[in-house]
Amino acid sequence: MINYPSSNIICLPVAQLNLALTSSGWVSTALMDDHKEAEAIAELSKAIAFKPDMQLLHLRAAFYDSMGDSLSTLRDCEAALCLDPNHADTLELYKKAQDRANEPLHIKRSIL
User: What is the total count of domains within the chain?
Assistant: First the structure.
């Protein structure tokens, strides 16, 4: 870590930055396992805001999908696909979310 004394800027070497982003994914997964969905989404959102990452975007999309939030799932899938247009898992999740978002309202109500 490099700390510049004249400012509040801290620079992490690339390896540490990648570890920090990966750790955010682990933490958010643990939070989802504990049914703390809002906290998991917030943890991922912080990491994504710092450095957009395809894996983290896909993970957050999957969390949104598990919560039934198709619009947020689609948004994060689209962002992830901008970074890796051929990512098979994200393409599959995107298609699933599109299908769910296009279901007629009466079918959605019968599921609930």
Answer: 1
